Amino acid sequence: MPQIVILTERVSAFDEMARRLADAFQCQTDCASSIGDVDLAFGKAPDLLVIDAMVDGSDALAVARQVIAVNAMINMAVVSDLSEDDFHEASEGLGIMARIPASPGAKEADMLVGLLKQMPGFDTK
């Protein structure tokens, strides 16, 4: 069963996304308010980490850089208001699978589910 963590201080803004992801993969979706609350170690790391625009005083891309420095195998989606082109330029090399808006809902959750289900074995972990 996959482990999904949403890194945010705005838990209610992610309620619908969390429910849809949990339902799609029959798993629990956890929230953490600090990067220190997320175990990034291999074997315990989340299968998907959704990072809010600001966490611990850092923007999502800075947090993503911290994550990949510990474990580059974590699938990440980040909240960003950058345009698609600007986001691509700013996040190049970080391995981020998706950019999502500040108030993600069913559409964004379904997009993540589709991307994750394309990964061999993801929904059977």
Describe this structure in words.
This protein is of the alpha/beta class. The protein is 34% helix and 21% strand. The chain has four helices and seven strands. It has helices at 15-25, 60-70, 84-91, 106-117, and strands spanning 4-7, 29-32, 48-51, 54-55, 58-59, 75-79, 96-100. The strands form two sheets. Strands 2-1-3-6-7 form a five-stranded parallel β-sheet, sandwiched between helices. The chain starts with a strand and ends in an 8-residue tail after the last helix. The relative contact order is 0.20. The mean pLDDT is 92.
Distance between the termini: 5 Å
* Strand element count: 7
The count of helical stretches stands at 4
Shape: globular
Low-confidence stretches: none
The amount of beta strand, in percent, is: 15-25%
Order of helices and strands: EHEEEEHEHEH
Helix/strand structural class:
alpha/beta
Provide the residue-averaged pLDDT. Answer: 92
Largest sheet: spatial strand order: 2-1-3-6-7
